[in-house]
Amino acid sequence: MPVVRMLQHLVGQMLLQGPACGCRTSALPARFPGTSRWHIPADANFHSASLSETDQPRVLITGGLGQLGVGLANFLRKRFGKDNVILSDIRKPPDHIFHSGPCIYSDILDYKNLREIVVNNRITWLFHYSALLSAVGEANVSLAKAVNITGLHNILDVAAEHSLRLFVPSTIGAFGPTSPRNPTPDLCIQRPRTIYGVSKVHAELMGEYYYYRYGLDFRCLRYPGIISADSQPGGGTTDYAVQIFHDAVKNGKFECNLKPSTRLPMMYIDDCLRATLEVMEAPAESLSMRTYNISAMSFTPEELAQEVLKHIPEFQITYNVDSVRQAIADSWPVSLDDSNARKDWGWKHDFDLPELVTTMLNFHGSDTRVAQAN
Predict the structure, then answer these.
(1) Is the pTM of this model over 0.85?
(2) How remote is the C-alpha of 129 from its chain's centroid?
(3) Which residues, in sequence order, are bridge partners of residue 170?
(4) Helices (H), the chain
(5) pLDDT by residue (tens digit) across 313-356?
(6) Cα(165)–Cα(52) distance, rounded to whole angstroms?
(7) Which residues of the chain are under the pLDDT cut of 50?
(8) Domain residues of the chain, as ranges?
(9) Which residues contact 73 (CB under 8 A, 6 or more apart)?
(10) How far is 271 from 324, CA to CA, in rounded Å?
(11) What pLDDT is stored for residue 122 in this prediction?
(12) How many angstroms separate the CA atoms of 161 and 210, rounded?
């Protein structure tokens, strides 16, 4: 037994000191049969494969039936080909999504299922969109912990094991009431007060840890509120800025659950998707950090309603403030400082508020409603 202990001590010292060449080791903590999921050789290389090796990335999107997943899949399929982008979720997809490209069942809480998907489909890029958003998460904290934290751990391990390039979105919700609010920089105090925000800070830090510890190619953007025309709101605090267009065109009126003066950062989905692809394609040497703010505009419900009125003169907005959502919004940034993203990989938004409103109303057919009203 003394000999065994001596050998264990020597091996431990070797692992702590690393190889004689001074290179960073990328060995993951072993997961042994019976007590863990997988075992990785100590000389494994966890840097993601370059496109020169694979021609086109093989993409998996988790949580694909949420607000952003379908749009991202369509966007990436135009770039990389329909069969190279796989949409996954635990829900049954509608017919039009099912027939638009590969769409499979995937449960991020099932590690074996995730691993089989990655191996069987030769995945090289993974976009992890499975999450319970801010307001929904507060209504079911235990489920939010399971999906947003335990699910993330599975994703990180699978990505590291199979040398994937991993994108995990973060959010303005990762900041809290003690963060600088106008503007909020990339690096500052983060003390969010929602389980959604806490889980996103956890994701940012774990992704950065896996990058430095294991060489995982982790990339992350803090999204503002995302406004999209072809998807339904998903339970977030900024979702009023999506629902207002549905209700304005359908009913000519909208009841807002935030105060009229609540200013929050927002972005049109086309800018969001383009930023996501741009940071994934950015050369590794151009990235000075793993998590970036991105921004386009900031506005209040009152300012958004005034812009809608220019297109639908009979539109009416009323306010019935939800105390939970208002408290969340009051703890979030008023605007984001995204100067690092603009400097490091050339981020630049295209849509401001007037272009956003025109695009959304055109999509939902406001011209028809105005003609009927007249």
Answers:
(1) no
(2) 5
(3) 222
(4) 2-17, 51-54, 69-80, 95-98, 111-120, 134-139, 141-145, 151-161, 195-214, 240-250, 269-281, 301-309, 323-330, 339-345, 353-364, 366-373
(5) 999 999 999 999 999 999 999 999 999 999 999 999 999 999 99
(6) 14
(7) 1-26, 30-54, 367-374
(8) 131-371
(9) 61, 64, 85, 87, 100, 101
(10) 29
(11) 98
(12) 11
CATH superfamily to which 131-371 belongs: NAD(P)-binding Rossmann-like Domain (3.40.50.720)
Strands 264-268 and 297-299: antiparallel
Whole-angstrom distance, CA of residue 363 vs CA of residue 359: 6
Query: What pLDDT does 283 receive?
Result: 97
The two structure tokens encoding residue 356: 């956003």
* Residue type for position 164: L
139 burial class (0-12, 13-18, 19+ CB within 10 angstroms)?
A: exposed
Residues 287, 273: Cα–Cα separation, whole Å:
18
Quote the pLDDT of residue 352.
97
Q: Which residues of 53-91 are buried (b: 16+ CB within 10 A; e: fewer)?
A: eeeebbbbbbbbbbbbbbbbbbbbbeebeeebbbbbbee
**Cis omega (within 30 of 0) for bond into 183:** yes
At residue 1, the pLDDT reads: 47
**CA end-to-end distance (rounded Å), the chain:** 91
Which tokens go with 117?
Answer: 């998907």
**For residue 266, what is the enclosing H or E element?**
strand 264-268
262 CB burial (10 A radius; 0-12, 13-18, 19+): buried
Is 330 within 8 Å of 177 (Cβ atoms)? yes
Exposed, middle or buried: residue 208 (CB in 10 Å: 0-12, 13-18, 19+)? middle
Considering only CA atoms, give the Rg of the chain: 22
Q: Give residue 234's pLDDT.
A: 66
Q: Quote the pLDDT of residue 25.
A: 41
Number of residues that this document lists for the chain: 374
- What the block records as the tokens of 216 is 């995982």
Question: pLDDT at position 55, please?
Answer: 78
Q: Which of 130, 147, 148 is nearest to 88 (CA)?
A: 130
Residues annotated as catalytic are: 196
Q: What is the pLDDT of residue 364?
A: 84
